[in-house]
Amino acid sequence: MKFLLNIPLSFLRLVLQSIHLATSQIWANKVRSVLTTLGIIIGVASVTAVIAALTGLKTTIMADLETFGTNKVFVAPNWPDSGPLKNASWRLIKFKPEQFDGLLEHCPSVKDFTRVSGFNESVRYGERAIESARITCVDAAWLDIESRSLLEGRPFSLVDETQGRKVCLIDPTLRDKLRLDRDCVDELIIIGNNSFRIVGVIEERPSMAFGVGG
Fold first, then answer.
1. How far apart are CA 8 and CA 57, in angstroms?
2. β-strand pairing of 194-202 with 167-170
3. pTM of the model as a whole
4. Which of 174, 157, 171, 180 is nearest to 202 (CA)?
5. CB 212 within 8 A of CB 199
6. Residue 133 in contact with residue 174, Cβ under 8 Å?
7. Domain residue spans of the chain
8. Are 185 and 199 in contact (CB under 8 A)?
9. CB neighbours of 203 closer than 8 A, spacing ≥ 6?
10. What does the angle CA 174 – CA 160 – CA 109 come to, to the nearest 5 degrees?
11. Over residues 21-36, mean pLDDT
12. Distances in Å between the alpha carbon of 159 and those of 25, 50, 122, 166, 185?
């Protein structure tokens, strides 16, 4: 029984002796102890920083993928690496509108699609002008596919498409650069040499850290 009672005392004595020995060694080798402690701190901080950076990178990539969309497919024409069309004119390579006729009927797994074409052109409103603004031509389904919200007005309609109406959507950046009123729906702007009626203002394109998509 006495032996069992001495076990905690012996353990406590061993701990105190270890602490005393460690303290005396640290005190006897101050520089080495400081350098060792500093190395441990730097090592732990480095590992923590790497873990934090990887976690942030994962969060950023996941946010980009959510913004881009996980069920989109982009198809773009390009010149083949070999064959008779390797150096063909872009007029032969580019997609033609009729090539998309019947796409939804023959591809039931495709919910919707939009054709996209872009070019640079001047945009004017009154005395204000922007040279080489990026103009993107799309179908009515584009807003839903891109999950872009309307801030003012209405989206494109099938009537706009079928009748070839000269209507456009703009974002707040273009609206501010042209010094349009906040409610600028039904205003006319000049794109190139043609007048287009603004039917809506859409939110800015979400920024993506890694430039996913096109």
1. 50
2. parallel
3. 0.61
4. 171
5. no
6. yes
7. 2-68, 113-202
8. yes
9. 148, 149, 150, 151, 171, 172
10. 95
11. 73
12. 87, 54, 26, 11, 18
| Residue 16's pLDDT band (cuts 50, 70, 90) | confident
The residue whose two tokens read 């109406």 is: 165
Whether the CB-CB separation of 200 and 169 falls below 8 Å is answered with yes
Separation CA 150–CA 175 (nearest Å): 14
CA distance 75 to 69: 15
Sequence-distant (6+) residues with CB within 8 A of 174 are: 123, 130, 133
Note whether 153 and 200 are within 8 A (CB).
yes
- Strand 150-153 and strand 194-202: the pairing is antiparallel
Identify the weakest region by mean pLDDT among 30-39, 44-53, 103-112.
Answer: 30-39
- Please name which of 26, 113, 123 lies closest in space to residue 73, comparing C-alpha atoms: 113
- What 3 state SS string does the chain have? CHHHHHHHHHHHHHHHHHHHHHHHHHHHCHHHHHHHHHHHHHHHHHHHHHHHHHHHHHHHHHHHHHHHCCCCCCCCCCCCCCCCCCCCCHHHHCCCHHHHCCHHHHCCCCCCCCCCEEEEEEEEECCEEEEEEEEEECCCCHHHHHCCCEEEECCCCHHHHHHCCCEEEECHHHHHHCCCCCCCCCCEEEECCEEEEEEEEECCCCCCCCCCCC
User: What is the spatial distance between Cα 157 and Cα 152, in angstroms, rounded to a whole number?
Assistant: 15
Predicted local confidence at residue 145, as pLDDT: 86
Q: In this predicted structure, what is the pLDDT of residue 88?
A: 86
